[in-house]
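Below is how a single chain appears once it has passed through the pipeline. First comes the sequence as given, then the structure the pipeline wrote out for it. We keep one example in the README because the format questions we get most often are answered faster by looking than by reading.
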Amino acid sequence: MKIEGEKIKKYALLLAAKDSDYVKKVYGGYFNVFLEALGEEGEKWDLFRVVEGEFPDMAELQNYEGFVISGSPFDAYGNENWILKLCLLLETLFFMHKKVLGICFGHQVLCRALGGKVGKACNGWDIGLRKLSIVKNISTHSFFSDLEEIPLALSIIECHQDEVLEVPKGAEIVAISEKTNVEMFTMGDHILGIQGHPEYTKDILFNLIDRLLSNGCIESGFAENAKSKLYKAEPDRKCLEKICKKFLKRELEFINIPGKI
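Resulting structure:
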């Protein structure tokens, strides 16, 4: 419930992918998928389709509490105009001390914008359910400190063939997996990157696997193996959503950030 006179908190989704026919039909678009996972009553969320060249006005950036960058079929190390413009925006948000959450492509392009390295995944495609190992005591981070106990391993939906090869100077690797060396990273108290998809439901990934198979991006055996793992287990969506919400919704204190771009 919104208290009278209380400022409405605004958040922005920087959508780096076009809505698939399936997601449009079932969810009304990826914006609604993110809103369901991360939004709360009394907030205002704005959508910017950066993949189509739609960006927030620079003069309006200060009005947002936080920003979320979605996944994308594009390479985060690509030099398309919108990707280069997105990198400049993310660098600006970093220096404005704005909270930025990067998901999949968003995780990678955030790393690139802040001075890290991204490229093709050393171990190829990772699609399906992946177990993450927490390698840092994340309860020491201000945005995790009052969460209920976070398990040392979390299952998350993955779908990527690129990855973070080297985090920016001053960043910390929070989680790894047997497939990917940087599953989560933080930088200061206002940057969080997650390689997997906390927002994805299993049906979204099933449809995505079918599309990748029909487009010849993956082979049938690989697709069936990925699906079989999804049938047998569930992602830790509730815990992952709590982590993301806590990161985005808490108050920040301005501090000097270690590292240099």
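The chain has one domain: 8-247.

See the next section for the split statistics.
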